[in-house]
Amino acid sequence: MTITLLPVDAVDPDTIRKLDVHESQMDFIASNEESLQELAERPECVGFAVIAEGAPVGFAMYALDPDDGNHWIYRLMIDARHQGKGYGVKALAALLEHMAGIPECGDIYLGVYPENTRAHALYHRFGFRETGMMLGEEKVMRLDRPSKLPLGASSRSAADGIIAIPSTCPAGRYDATEAATGFVRRRPRTSSPPSA
User: Fold this and answer.
1) For residue 78, is pLDDT > 50?
2) DSSP 10
3) Looking only at Cα atoms, what is the longest distance across the chain?
4) Which residues lie across from 6 on neighbouring strands?
């Protein structure tokens, strides 16, 4: 199984809008409709469709946050029909691999609701740690030095913006058999997030 991150503008936006998480997860993440709107309004945001077996199964978005100058994962979601297949793990690995290739990208931040235990466990497995800070109701987590991540199993095509994680990536690091869908909800903020 290969997961591909494809620039979101290469995919029909209605297909992305139709992807949704389980009802019990909806409080943890913005809808893809909201995410696509934010992507259109904020030039610092970069969005990807998560592709598996030739079809979109999720959405991811990151940004160099203009408020604090740090790179943040704003969204990572896998459609409810495709959860439990390891797509979330591989999508996060591909996103981190992409971000590690950005010359000015230092530590990577995200916010996660404390009750979103599956996402918290996923991020923790990848090396994200709590900063002790909160952004609204979310715990802020940080991944140190992404350029040092051992993500050598992935391949990237800079020419067409496709990033792929093959099924042969190290199972010890990206265990696709565990519950592995990550959900990040970033609400519009009224003040700058805490800096590291």
Assistant:
1) yes
2) G
3) 43
4) 49
